[in-house]
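Entry type: protein chain
Record version: 2
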Amino acid sequence: MNSLASALPGAATVPARNRATPIALTALQKLLLPTGAVLFDVLFWNQEVGLNLALYTLFVVGATLAGLPRYAAVWRSGYFWLMLAGTALSAGCVLVLGSGAAKLACVASMIMLLGYVNQPHLKLVAFALLTAVGGAARALPGFLPYLWPSRQEAGASNKWRRTRFYGRLLLLPILIVVGFHILFSLANPRYDQLATAVFARVGEWLAALLPAISVGHVLFFVLGLTLTAGALVVVPFHFFQDQESRLGEFVRRQRDRVASFGVRHPNFHARTFRSLDLRKEYLMALAVFGLVNALLLVVNIIDINWIWLGFAPTPGFDLTQFVHEGTYVLILSILVAMGIVLWFFRRNLNFYAPGLQVLRWGATVWVVQNAVLVISVGLRNYYYITYTGLAYKRIGVYGFLLLTLFGLGTVLLKIWQRRSAYSLVRLNGLAAYGVLLLLALGNWEIWMVRYNLSPRFKDVDLGFLLEMPERVLPELAARQQVLQGMTRIVISPPGSYTERRATPLEAQEAIQARIAAWRRNYPEYHSWQSWTYAEASAYEQLTK
């Protein structure tokens, strides 16, 4: 274990036999750990997320890179550079936009970056995330003895003895002083008055200090120290790297393995038996692909005629059911279809020469038809947006459909290139990370307000818009005149089961009240730690 740990630059060692023994820290780590804990406390205590997350990310990444020598294997990892670029990009999005997607992308990128630092040869982004968490979990027990020394160790035992010696040395004089103070207070009224005044002043000072060092604040500081230690103290964690090392990019032909039960017939041949089994599996796959292709062809023809070519909902048509339930069921069918393809092409059926081409083309037609179905789902989502407005779930559906199209493309790679399930997970994991960064780049709330408060709509869920982050308030103020042409304005809180309607005048008053409240609260509750360009710009526009 120690040899493996020493092979990783900047890595700490954890003794295998005694977990209570402190891990070995470099001089740089001893300096950076308390600095990071103090920085975390100053940046995040009682603060919203903004500039503080970008600064703390910069500290963690900078400290990590500073501990990596030039010959470290991680410098040659393309995934490491991808995560480094993604961390910088998402941190910039946090600083500019401050959106939830940007914050999530920043934290996820930083954790996966630390995972690749721990194990540079990893490829799966999910394994990198879990490796970072596992490495931090292994580092923390070895870091705790610095906070609470173990008496089992010789060095720690000596420190404990010195602590007890100096404690006894100071305790006796303190007790004597307290005794004489009580005697003097009883004997001398003026001394008692002076002592009372001094203790009162000390009490005032402690009363002003204690709120800043409350139990919650102490626990928060410990949390910051824990997170900093987990990020900066690298303890090699090989579990997921070992699992990944057993996986390959392509499917390999497996050797026939046939169990024997009882006495074999003289003419029994195991290879013939396995050939028959493989032929049965081939016929079953061919039947499945043929039947579902025919069924899906009917569905796609209906969707093309109904949805693609001039869709117009009839009076009384339930558009919500058409989109919500229809979309979810179709997405589930696409995922099931992908799972079936992966199942049939998981092993030796990839090498069944007599019917492989027919099977491949049948599966390819099914994948293409599922891509057509993805487009139909996208059109359902588009019509819903056109008739009712833009919302978070509608954006999320398009992000998921992008991943689905990419996943269908990787399924084609599996069919024609004999790619393994590991290869598909690796590629789709990278695609999911790319979509996360794409969502972090979007100023979605501003776009939703601009779209939903356009003259094309006659009804609007104003309560949903008012619950958005404050950076949308200038857009609400600029478009409140559109409310005059609305026939239905809902200002019920999101999630409420009762619909509360409002007149255009009441809706404008609600917008003005929200703006006035934020103008009062922003200077009081926002500081430089939670600063973002979008919020600062919005406040400046509203105070002109």
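Comment: Residues 2-151+229-244 form one domain.
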